[in-house]
Specification:
CATH topology: Rossmann fold
Mean pLDDT: 88
Number of domains: 1
Number of helices: 4
Keywords: ATP-binding, Cytoplasm, Magnesium, Metal-binding, Nucleotide-binding, tRNA processing
Radius of gyration: 14 Å
InterPro entries: P-loop_NTPase, T6A_TsaE
CATH superfamily: P-loop containing nucleotide triphosphate hydrolases
CATH class: Alpha Beta
CATH architecture: 3-Layer(aba) Sandwich
Low-confidence stretches: 1-6
Number of strands: 7
GO cellular component, one term: cytoplasm
Strand order of the largest sheet: 1-7-6-2-5-4-3
Structural class: alpha/beta
Order of helices and strands: EHEHEEHHEEE
GO biological process, one term: tRNA threonylcarbamoyladenosine modification
Strand content: 25-35%
Pfam families: TsaE
Length: 142
């Protein structure tokens, strides 16, 4: 089995004002360097990643790396990599851009659209799934 479920948490949010508390509850549970952010377009993956970076102490301006594929942010504990694989056509593109070096670097990797690189995902990772329905977000962390 590829997934190591150490902890599972589910949050229901009616407002973006809940995000700081949700992220504050998740951060102490992180034991792996790769976090997969799953959710439909517009579910709030990038918004949630922005809150992660704020709480990790980054002072950088956070934006989606849709065209660059990866953005690097500095935090007091080191680099954090933010990936968006939405626009890749196949896993070879992620492999060619150095995904594996990032994934095994020991730095935190926050990955949007991981379903585009399923066979390249390391053995140990967390999954954060966002379901946005009727302006209510259900956020699950495993």
């Amino acid at each position: 089995m590829k997934i190591n479920y150490l902890c599972e948490m589910t949050f229901v949010s009616h407002d973006l004002i809940d995000l700081p508390k949700i992220v504050a509850d998740i951060l102490p549970q992180i034991e792996h360097d790769v976090i997969l952010f799953r959710g439909e377009m517009g579910a709030g993956k990038t918004t949630l990643i922005k809150e992660f970076l704020i709480q990790l102490g980054s002072e950088d301006i956070v934006s989606s790396p849709t065209y660059a594929l990866v953005n690097e942010y500095e935090t007091p504990k080191g680099s954090v990599y933010h990936f968006d694989f939405y626009r890749i056509n196949d896993e070879d593109e992620a492999y060619d851009m150095g995904w594996e070096e990032y994934a095994y670097s020991g730095n935190l990797c926050l990955v949007e659209w991981p379903e585009r690189i399923e066979s390249l995902i390391p053995e140990n990772y967390h999954t954060l799934e966002i379901i946005n329905k009727d302006n209510v977000r259900t956020i699950s962390f495993k």
